[in-house]
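The data are passed on as follows:
___
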Amino acid sequence: MRIGKKDMIFIGLVAVVFLVFYLISGEEKTKRVPLDDAHKASYELFKKTGSKMEADKGCPACHNTEPGGIPFPAKHPVKPKDGPMRCLFCHKLKLSGVQ
């Protein structure tokens, strides 16, 4: 069986796709949830329920845009209008706190 020109183009295209995936993958840039007293309740709730959605419900108590709350960075995505906070969709819990 001979490898033709079309086969070489296909192999090259697959190699380019893998190269692009390799180049865009890298170090995770999203901050992890700190393992401190302020976030201890979220870790405990996640251990108890196993649900990130349940653990997310405590985030608005401290992280909000109202006076006295811990403000989000300027480019932080906003919460959906009528949807729940989904902090743990991007921000991961530290494994040492989950186990």
